[in-house]
Write a structure and sequence with these properties.
Glycerol-3-phosphate (1)-acyltransferase, seven-stranded mixed beta sheet, about 350 residues, disordered C terminus, alpha/beta, two-stranded antiparallel ribbon
Length: about 350
């Protein structure tokens, strides 16, 4: 049996596959931000541009804990190096072999350097070559901002270039995703609903490294790809409201909490201003007369819960993220209102 400490340790990181599948709908408590929201007892949805549902852990698993081997793979090396109840008895040969002990110590120290990397079962996704972003983004950004639309970006100084990061934005227009990808000074791979992957649009999304996610089922492949990107120090983009709406961050899906906790990375809030007016639903071409802003805020860390496999704990993390994203949006809009008043 695995010791309780191995399962509930704040440093434990479990894989997406370590949670059990659930085909049930989101609990009546609803996403973070709605009344009665903090506790969720069914499937948590991936909060990324209408993303699909995340597998959830069963109540029995949550109470009993994962198998010892699974926890040892998932947690950082410093915890894995500690003996558990299931590993306290060793064979005489292993105990008497200094070479085996030294090899295990070396492996543990190497794994410790990668402690922040998420571990999960299955083959890692293929790394994305971002040369297309580095070469094409500067000229595409200039054309979009000055000829196609009227867009300004702010807050580049808040964006770290050398750490895993989740860009999380409000979502009121189809243009929000492309704008976050194009306006960011570093490569961002957004989670995009799989329905978009058709024809030339689907080919282009694949070419520029965006990640398809199936909204109709628990999509482990999308989660693995996103976690792989974060483990390599990359950045992903999500729109945790789940679908286009008012863009007010009144509610978010809980998948963003899963990615932030298990990806061990900070979240950077992004405010997309006036994009809904520039390209409302049904419009085929953006209105250049509408001035849009993409404002990158300061990244923040989330608190890793004692049991990162707990659905209730992830729901609480999602609510904390929602509040911070809403505060950033409010601050940006208040600043815009103050500038307009001064201009008058």
């Amino acid at each position: 049996m695995t010791s309780p400490d191995a399962v509930t340790s704040p440093d434990a990181v479990t894989s997406p596959d370590a949670v059990t599948s659930s085909d049930g709908p989101v609990s009546p408590a609803g996403p973070a931000g709605q009344s009665g929201a903090p506790a969720v007892d069914d499937a948590a949805a991936v909060g990324a541009k209408g993303a699909g549902a995340v597998d959830t852990v069963s109540a029995a698993e949550e109470a009993a804990g994962a198998p010892a081997a699974q926890v040892a793979l998932a947690r950082p090396a410093e915890l894995a190096a500690q003996p558990t109840a299931s590993s306290s008895v060793t064979s005489p040969a292993a105990a008497a072999s200094p070479a085996a002990t030294a090899a295990a110590s070396t492996a543990a120290s190497r794994a410790g350097a990668r402690g922040a990397a998420p571990a999960h079962r299955g083959a890692a996704s293929k790394p994305f070559n971002d040369i297309t972003h580095r070469v094409l983004k500067p000229p595409v950004r200039w054309v979009l901002n000055h000829l196609v639309m009227s867009v300004t970006h702010e807050g580049w100084e808040n964006i770290p270039r050398d750490e895993p990061l989740i860009f999380a934005g409000n979502h009121s227009s189809w243009m929000d995703g492309p704008l976050v990808v194009i306006e960011a000074p570093r490569t961002v791979r957004c989670l995009v609903k799989s329905e978009m992957y058709k024809g030339i649009v689907g080919w282009w999304l694949t070419f520029v490294g965006q990640i398809p996610v199936d909204r109709g089922r628990p999509d482990r492949a999308a989660l693995h790809t996103a976690l792989d990107e974060l483990s390599r120090g990359g950045a992903i983009g999500v729109f945790p409201e789940g679908t286009r709406g008012s863009g007010e961050m009144a509610a978010v899906q809980h998948g963003i909490a899963y990615l932030a906790v298990h990806g061990r990375c900070r979240v950077l809030p992004v405010a997309c201003i006036n994009t809904g007016d520039a390209l409302p639903k049904g419009a085929r071409w953006p209105r250049r007369s509408v001035k849009c802003r993409v404002v990158f805020g300061e990244p923040f860390a989330v608190e890793v819960p004692a049991n990162p496999r707990s659905r209730r704990a992830l729901a609480a993390v999602a609510e904390d993220i929602r509040v911070r994203l809403a505060d950033h949006l409010t601050t940006v809009r208040a600043g815009a209102s103050g500038e307009s008043a001064s201009a008058e």
